[in-house]
């Protein structure tokens, strides 16, 4: 018995906190009046991108009288965690779910069930496959974003034939594949082109990117252009290039538009980044669910929330903004 | 003299240059308590390990009831009916008394429940465990379902001794059974040893506690420098004589030495 | 020995004491309290639908935790269990996609998982390496093997037999019961029986209590330890099957924290990481507590980071209780 008592007390204490928070946010549960409940399911809780998404959604929700419940997977690719989150949110009676789907094919079943129960489902940032598994998608067009990066690098190289290293993301990831494809389009290259002297998965992680770049350079240091899937990967790649004495001699581009990334561009660590706008995704998503709750209008299709090239070395023919503008509009 | 229950002749065990057993002899008579005493490093534990199968001697013979026997593992010795109560007791603390008594020797149900489903006969084991404790007069434990970790040191010792007595058909070896116990609990363990002897099971008792040895032993085996130095009867000797034999200050042939029961 | 009078133990006393000694009791009480609190504070938690859902959500981790329980009872730990399971899902999915019959795929999946369990067990048992190190190494190797085997792809599963554990019917026309739930109940019952009603189970506990003592009592310590890892491997294959029933997609990146989740369930369930103490009932309860907290806190509108805080606190609390109990017993 002596084991039981503290266990019970602890649980009561934990759940007491839960109950208090609930009272404070004033949700009554169910459909009977009260604020519109919106579930936000992100890939993880750790990436500043998702933090921005969450904070923007919460802040915007408050101005619209909606309550945003944020739940996340534990790691990139945590299908099980996202499925459980969707199920729990549906049980709770949310009007709509905004989700950055972890693995596009992994969670379709849960999303379908949510839709069947009359919940509006909007994908943020990442498309599902097939796309109509959700009612609408608010995202960066990642092919466009990749293409912008590719065009810029191509323009920077000018007539010099490219010697390209590619810092990819997670094998099989949708975003990864789209950015990769877009970039090569922008460069006017195809997969398998001999100009691509190496590629490695980085999982978008700085440490992995650095190690991957170090290893690739060990093999072939004639590189003059580097594609990076996101800014952490760019930082890792630049660190490895710097150690080899190649900093500034290689055209490095990136995608994301995080505040640190904009600062990196300003500091000249890499030439350009393509900014995406999680705040817009979150706000438009919240607006859509609120509208749906009010009169049942459903958004549809793919809504591009835009991609903007950020660089302090603008090149003719490419629309770009400088890092000052970037710093004002960045996330994270 | 009656035929020994266990007899060893000329046991030798070397580890590299170190000789742990140097031509040791050993005799255990039926129904006796034989104390084995010796200074630290005299090779008592090596001798006992050789008798309980924990080490295989390089030379020498072991006769069990007059039959030459070779133990290659403690399990061999156990199968031959030699049980050892280790100093560590070898009990599983989070399991109850009955479970510990039958650990490694569980009884299964008869019929397909036992042979196919491997179902244990917990009732039979509990009952036999209780009978064993009763027979040995171990009454301080409340019931055989008590967890060993809730028992006192003396009670745990009693459980380990009861297990040895239950399965020992030829002899029981006890390694320092009272070393960790208080006066009262030591006395209770000595009572237990007497009861086991009274059942006709010979007991080998390894002990440092000279008063205790003189209280309970029928004969005392003095071990020194890897071999048997002497065997004396407590009635014939004083404690200081035995200690002198252990240290070598006194030799078996000396005029003031107690009568030695064996040739050395 | 004869000073104290003999207390004749009544049967009722004995079972009452056994009940109070059951290490699953604390977690069970915590689970009930959690359910009551969520039922009171949210209008959506205590519904038949939701309770069925919570059980479905806990199935894969609970099955992983079942294998983990066996290993933890011997004083070991398995960091590779989820990786083995994920590789299992890919073997199942890829074989079926490649045209094998689902039965062949299942057999192959079970063989692969059992073999990997046996490798861990063999290294721990016969090379006498620490389980933490062995399974850490296995984790890395198996993860990489999974990625090599899948070439980074994930494999959607449409096969009936492989997805069958997610199917099911309604009990009393109301309660959704999947075949996965039924299988889990059977598996837990069988494991409970093996642990508490057979000599093998007693030897597993004895091994975790004190391996030297177990050896001295004549238990085949090596054989028993190895068998535990082998059985755990088979259980991970069942977990792989359960995982495909829940999400019909074999993904090399899935369940990256499955090993820790299973340890969490085992520890919250009152099984001691030092070995020799614990029960499968506790593990069931531990897995359910995690799922109940996640579901209930979401429905109370609590963000997931705070849910993680709650789970983490529970783990530490559970281990603290274990320590206190152990200290008192000395």
From TrEMBL, chain A:
The chain positions of domain Periplasmic binding protein read 38-294
One of the record's GO molecular function terms: carbohydrate binding
Task: Spell out the family assignment given in the record's similarity comment.
Answer: Belongs to the bacterial solute-binding protein 2 family.
- Is NADP a UniProt keyword of this protein? no
Tell me, in one coarse class, where this protein mainly resides. other
Q: Which UniProt keywords apply?
A: Signal
| Name under which the protein is recorded | Fructose transport system substrate-binding protein
Q: Which GO CC annotations does the UniProt entry carry?
A: cell envelope
Q: What is the organism field in this record?
A: Kribbella sandramycini
Q: Where in the cell is it found?
A: Cell envelope
Q: Which residues does UniProt assign to the signal peptide?
A: 1-18
Q: Which SUPFAM superfamilies match?
A: Periplasmic binding protein-like I
Q: Do you know which InterPro entries this protein is assigned to?
A: Peripla_BP_I, SBP_2_dom
UniProtKB/TrEMBL annotation, chain B:
An annotated Gene Ontology molecular function:
ATP binding
Question: Do you know which SUPFAM superfamilies this protein is assigned to?
Answer: P-loop containing nucleoside triphosphate hydrolases
Q: Extract the Pfam families matched here.
A: ABC_tran
> Which UniProt keywords are listed?
ATP-binding, Nucleotide-binding
* Record-annotated ABC transporter domain positions: 6-250
Q: Which InterPro entries match?
A: AAA+_ATPase, ABC_carbohydrate_import_ATPase, ABC_transporter-like_ATP-bd, ABC_transporter-like_CS, P-loop_NTPase
PANTHER family given for it?
CARBOHYDRATE TRANSPORT ATP-BINDING PROTEIN MG119-RELATED, SUGAR ABC TRANSPORTER ATP-BINDING PROTEIN
Q: What's the protein name?
A: Fructose transport system ATP-binding protein
Instruction: Record the organism.
Output: Kribbella sandramycini
UniProtKB/TrEMBL annotation, chain C:
What are the record's GO terms for cellular component?
plasma membrane
Q: Does the keyword rRNA-binding apply?
A: no
Q: Could you list the residue ranges forming a coiled coil in this record?
A: none
Per the record, the major location class is: membrane
Q: Which residues cross the membrane?
A: 24-46, 53-73, 104-126, 132-149, 170-195, 226-244, 265-293
Looking at the keywords, is DNA-binding present?
Answer: no
Instruction: Return one GO MF term.
Output: transmembrane transporter activity
Q: Tell where it localizes.
A: Cell membrane
Quote the InterPro entries the UniProt record gives. ABC_transp_permease
* Topological relation to the membrane, as annotated: Multi-pass membrane protein
A matching Pfam family = BPD_transp_2
Going by the UniProt record, its keywords in alphabetical order are: Cell membrane, Membrane, Transmembrane, Transmembrane helix
- Know the name of this protein? ABC transporter permease
């Amino acid at each position: 018995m002596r084991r039981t008592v503290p266990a019970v007390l602890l649980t009561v204490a934990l759940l007491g906190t839960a109950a208090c928070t609930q009272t404070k946010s004033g949700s009554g549960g169910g459909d009977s009046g009260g604020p519109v409940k919106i579930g936000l399911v992100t890939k993880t809780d750790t990436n500043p991108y998702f933090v921005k998404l969450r904070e923007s959604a919460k802040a915007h929700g408050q101005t619209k009288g909606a309550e945003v419940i944020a739940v996340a997977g534990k790691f990139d690719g945590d299908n099980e965690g996202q499925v459980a989150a969707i199920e729990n949110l549906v049980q709770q009676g949310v009007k709509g779910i905004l989700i950055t789907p972890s693995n596009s094919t992994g969670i379709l079943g849960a999303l379908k069930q949510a839709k069947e129960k009359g919940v509006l489902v909007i994908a943020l940032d990442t498309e599902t496959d097939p796309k109509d598994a959700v009612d609408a998608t608010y995202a960066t067009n990642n092919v466009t974003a990749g293409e912008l990066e590719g065009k810029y690098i191509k323009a920077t190289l000018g007539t010099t034939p490219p010697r390209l290293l590619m810092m990819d993301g997670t094998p099989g990831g949708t975003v990864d594949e789209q950015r990769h494809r877009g970039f090569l389009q922008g460069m006017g290259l195809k997969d398998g082109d001999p100009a691509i002297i190496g590629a490695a998965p980085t999982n978008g992680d700085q440490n992995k990117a650095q190690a991957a770049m170090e290893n690739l350079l060990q093999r072939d240091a004639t590189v003059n252009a580097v594609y990076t899937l996101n800014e952490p990967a760019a930082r890792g790649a630049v660190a490895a290039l710097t150690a080899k004495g190649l900093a500034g001699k290689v055209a490095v581009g990136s995608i994301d538009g995080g505040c640190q990334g904009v600062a990196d561009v300003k500091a000249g660590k890499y030439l350009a980044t393509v900014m995406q706008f999680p705040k817009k995704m979150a706000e438009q998503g919240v607006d859509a669910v609120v509208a749906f709750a009010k009169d049942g209008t459903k958004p549809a299709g793919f809504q591009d929330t835009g991609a903007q090239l950020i660089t302090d070395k603008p090149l003719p023919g490419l629309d770009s903004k400088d890092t000052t503008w970037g710093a004002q509009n960045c996330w994270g | 003299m009656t035929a020994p229950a266990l007899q060893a002749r000329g046991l030798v065990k070397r580890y590299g240059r170190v000789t742990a057993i140097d031509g040791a002899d050993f005799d255990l008579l039926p129904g006796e308590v034989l104390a084995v005493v010796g200074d630290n490093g005299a090779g008592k534990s090596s001798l006992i390990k050789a008798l309980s199968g924990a080490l295989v001697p390089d030379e020498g013979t072991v006769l069990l009831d007059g039959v030459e026997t070779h133990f290659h593992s403690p399990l061999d010795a156990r199968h031959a009916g030699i049980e050892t109560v280790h100093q560590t007791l070898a009990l599983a603390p989070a399991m109850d008394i009955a479970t510990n008594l039958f650990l490694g020797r569980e009884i299964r149900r008869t019929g397909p429940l036992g042979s196919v489903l491997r179902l244990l006969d917990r009732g039979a084991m509990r009952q036999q465990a209780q009978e064993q404790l009763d027979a040995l007069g171990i009454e301080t434990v409340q019931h055989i379902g008590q967890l060993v970790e809730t028992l006192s040191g003396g009670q745990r010792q009693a459980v380990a001794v009861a297990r040895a007595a239950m399965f020992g058909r030829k002899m029981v070896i006890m390694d320092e059974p009272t070393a960790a116990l208080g006066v009262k609990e030591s006395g209770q363990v000595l009572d237990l040893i007497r009861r086991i002897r009274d059942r006709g099971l010979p007991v080998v008792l390894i002990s440092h506690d000279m008063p205790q040895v003189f209280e309970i032993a029928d004969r005392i085996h003095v071990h020194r420098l890897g071999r048997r130095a002497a065997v004396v009867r407590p009635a014939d000797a004083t404690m200081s004589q035995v200690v002198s034999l252990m240290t070598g200050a006194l030799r078996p042939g000396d005029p003031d030495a107690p009568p030695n029961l064996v040739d050395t | 020995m004869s000073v104290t009078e003999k207390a004749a133990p009544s049967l009722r006393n004995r079972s009452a004491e056994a009940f109070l000694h059951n290490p699953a009791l604390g977690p069970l009480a915590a689970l009930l309290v959690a359910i009551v609190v969520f039922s009171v504070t949210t209008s959506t938690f205590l519904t038949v639908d939701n309770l069925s859902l919570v059980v479905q959500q806990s199935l894969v981790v609970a099955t992983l935790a079942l294998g983990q329980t066996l290993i933890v009872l011997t004083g070991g730990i398995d960091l590779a269990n989820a990786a083995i399971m994920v590789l299992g899902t890919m073997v199942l999915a890829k074989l079926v996609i490649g045209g094998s019959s689902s039965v062949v795929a299942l057999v192959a999946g079970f063989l692969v998982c059992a073999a990997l369990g046996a490798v861990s067990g063999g290294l721990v048992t016969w090379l006498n390496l620490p389980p933490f190190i062995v399974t850490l190494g296995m984790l890395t190797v198996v993860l990489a093997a999974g990625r090599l085997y899948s070439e980074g792809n994930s494999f959607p599963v449409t096969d009936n037999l492989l997805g069958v554990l997610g199917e099911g019917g309604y009990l009393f026309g109301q309660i959704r019961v999947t075949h996965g739930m039924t299988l889990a109940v059977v598996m837990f019952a069988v494991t409970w029986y093996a642990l508490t009603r057979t000599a093998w189970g007693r030897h597993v506990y004895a091994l975790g209590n004190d391996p030297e003592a177990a050896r001295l009592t004549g238990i085949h310590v090596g054989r028993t330890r190895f068998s535990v890892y082998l059985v755990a491997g088979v259980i991970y294959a069942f977990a792989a099957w359960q995982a495909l029933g829940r999400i019909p997609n074999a993904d090399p990146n899935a369940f990256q924290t499955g090993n820790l989740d299973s340890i969490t369930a085992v520890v919250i369930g009152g099984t001691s990481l030092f070995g020799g103490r614990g029960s499968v009932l506790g593990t069931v309860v531990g897995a359910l507590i995690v799922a109940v907290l996640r579901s209930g806190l979401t429905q109370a509108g609590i963000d997931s980071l705070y849910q993680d805080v709650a789970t983490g606190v529970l783990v530490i609390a559970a281990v603290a209780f274990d320590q206190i109990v152990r200290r008192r017993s000395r």
